Amino acid sequence: MSFRRNIWLLITGILFLSDMMVAQEMPSACGNGKVRYRMHGQPGSSFVWNIQGGTQINIYASGDSVDVMWNNLNGEHSLSCQEFPATGCAGSPIIQNVKVDVLSVEIGDIEYLCEGAKMELNAGKGFTSYLWQDGSGDRILNAFNPGIYWVEVRKGKCVARDSMEIVRAESPVVYLGKDTIIVSPNRLLLDAQNMGKFYEWSTGSHSQTIWANEDDGEIWVRVISEKDCMASDTIRIIPENTNEFIIPNVFTPNGDGVNDTWRIGGLLLHPNTNVKLFDRWGRLIFNSEPGYPKPWNGERDGKLLPMDAYYYVIDLKDGIEPLRGSVTLIP
């Protein structure tokens, strides 16, 4: 006695006939996807299934239907079913090959985004559609803000999804100070701060601090954090005999030999200049000789004044309105 046996494939309520005697395209399944298969046999028969590359998770009725969870293994796998009719005459095993497609997408885990920067999230090629958490459908998404991001990709009936978190990373704060005048042999210590970061100076140094000299001109530094966030600053070192008119807004008369006096650049062309300084109550505390030959050292009557803002009047004696402003003394 012989029987015509077929394996039926049931996916989401639709039954497909897989007739082993008719040439057809190999059925497919998704990795980590569940598919229900059914053997069309004789009434009263029992069935034994053998699954390669998948796991049997449910069996129904007399065993003619089975749910298979296909493993995450790309390629061709198989399942077979042998019918044992009530007559006792066992049928030959029916074998069906199944092509398993495994989709995988990875956009990251935790990434750090520097202030003012953007991050490119790439879901990769080879998928038929893309869906990001903001509803966009491109392969690449540009992220400008911290938060949770996810993408869902599809190929045929298979779906894969991945998510990641973007965390805000603080950028270093770098300040070398205002452009300043250095009188040789004095030097100025420049500090990029941000201890433990990576430093790149225009001088070629990679240390946190460097010494600046009178003729160094423009000096810049870049500071890069452990999260690859970068900040930079530039300072100009101005020689005392410059023709450029420079009025520093801070100086530090602390006796370290650096920036100890309030030096004004560009007065060589104005030999009759008079400089006056006043405290916050309007009291005169300094009155220079013509040309400002001896810069103010922060003292009044031989005593160092406290930290404060002091107000200046610089009269170039050339017929124009005197210059007014303030300078901060930091002992």
Q: How is this structure best described in words?
A:
It is a single chain. The chain is mainly beta and 331 residues long. 0% of the residues lie in helices and 48% in strands. The chain has no helices and 28 strands. Strands 2-1-4-7-6 form a 5-stranded antiparallel beta sheet, with no helix packed on it. Strands 22-28-27-23-24 form a 5-stranded mixed beta sheet, with no helix packed on it. A hairpin with a 2-residue loop joins strand 14 and strand 15 (158-169). The N and C termini lie far apart (110 Å). Residues 1-24 have low confidence and may be disordered.
Q: Kindly report the spatial arrangement of strands forming the biggest sheet.
A: 2-1-4-7-6
Query: What is the straight-line distance between the termini?
Result: 110 Å
Q: How large is the radius of gyration?
A: 41 Å
What would the principal axes of the Cα set say about the shape? rod-shaped
Helix content: under 10%
Number of helices: 0
Range of strand content = over 45%
N to C succession of SSEs: EEEEEEEEEEEEEEEEEEEEEEEEEEEE
Sketch the major β-sheet. 5 strands, antiparallel
Mean pLDDT comes to: 85
The secondary structure category is mainly beta
Q: pLDDT under 50 segments (min length 5)? A: 1-24
Count the beta strands. 28
Can you describe this structure in just a few lines?
With 331 residues, the chain is an all-beta fold. The protein has no helices and 28 strands. It is rod-shaped, with a radius of gyration of 41 Å.
